[in-house]
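U., I forgot to send this yesterday:
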Amino acid sequence: MPITEILKKNSDFYPNDIALVEINPKLENQIRTTWREYSLIEAKPNADYRKEITWSEFNKKANRFANLLLSRGIKKGDKVAILLMNCLEWLPIYFGILKTGALAVPLNYRYTAEEIKYCLNLSDSDVIIFGPEFTGRIEEIYHRIPRVKMWFYAGEDCPTFAESYDRLVTYCSSKAPDIKLCDSDEAAIYFSSGTTGFPKAIIHNHESLMHAAMTEQNHHGQTKEDVFLCIPPLYHTGAKMHWFGSFLVGGRAVLLKGIEPEWILKAVSDEHCTIVWLLVPWAQDILDAIDSGKINLDDYNLSQWRLMHIGAQPVPPSLINRWKNVFPNHQYDTNYGLSESIGPGCVHLGVENIHKVGAIGKAGYGWKVKIVDEHKNEVKQGEVGELAVKGPGVMNCYYKDEKATAEVLADGWLFTGDMAQEDEDGFIFLVDRKKDVIISGGENLYPVQIEDFLRKNDKIKDVAVIGIPDARLGEIAAAVIEVKPDMQLTEEELEDFCFDLPRYKRPRKIIFADVPRNPTGKIEKPKLREIYGAKSVVAHENEINQ
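Result:
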């Protein structure tokens, strides 16, 4: 069944129930400050701080945008790009595109102008809808992409080269367009994170999207009464596919525009959220804010919060142990996935397996997994190999890249590029990215294992281990350490701390610096390798010594 049918069902069954809520804490804080400064009246939040729409309004908005696109000649198989920050219009626009039979093409809001141009050209996008945050970047490139015929703008003060989405859709019918869709129809193009170079365009069909929804709901048991707090960017498969579990049952979702710990807890409290998906840095920031006294849990109503789950990156067991100490009644789950496998869920831990914290889990609902060697043969239990997954959520292909597709797809199996091993109970542990493995003096070093050890140090906020060139050993392990605010940590302390590691696993180089992460929480190791390559490390040391 096409994913658009779920929106129709929710609109028919729950027309007046709230579907989506948008909360903008920054706007509330700005308004409160302004009122206080001018002493006009007692400080109170602006009405725009919180917006909401019902399922009926959601469906009508999607229909209006679909009819706008169809009136402009967009047809089945065309591509429509979305470049918006998380907002109340994002999902209706996405579903409006799907209702036409066109493919939705979400773009990373951190893309530079040239990266936007690259992705629009790679995906053969015919239309783009963008928000005010991106006007400058779009101005740089719109005249250099002749294929894009329509530039829609969502927001106030529409630039002269674009058309106002808000104005145009008011004249469009809110009735559903008569476009027949089936499971095998292509639905969306998502872009890989680009950690190994330029992003690849990943095509998924409606069956993939529906399977993501069913997998998520099967894993976490969402009901109509659950409220899902969505914080990560909607352009990424992770946030949207977790929301799909609530979408499937008509549950409410709250879009929070901000990641400050107090904003997250206030949203959970005010909106009675029951399910929250966090990235590792956000969970860590919440715990640090509680430990420091910046946040007092007694100020919030959190009793209804039943599930905290994490994905998009390896999860340090020490973090979850800390979390369970603070929130002992929370269910916890971790989810593994890739954009090529329609995001999270092809492997998951399961809320009943908290005793296996550190593992990514077992095959998810409707999925198969195996671990293979370099010849694609399954390895023995306990041996390290490449993780492969198979199921209805595997991508169709990399668009316009047969060579890259053939490198990762074979007989329905997706070879993930992640190194993993299975324990005696059948649980899979992620060891590292295949491309991140460090070969030092003939020994394979898996950075994630070293990072997990270092994170046990209470003074470390974040850490990334990378390989840097070495004349004698080929590569050595370098640890980039981000120290917690208001704490001091020396290289000598770290060397003492690492005595419990086997000698060959101990970092040979310590670098105190910030650890960059992308919007989905993944450490940007290519960037670190570029900064702290052999020459850069010498320059960095000279800079410190000066």
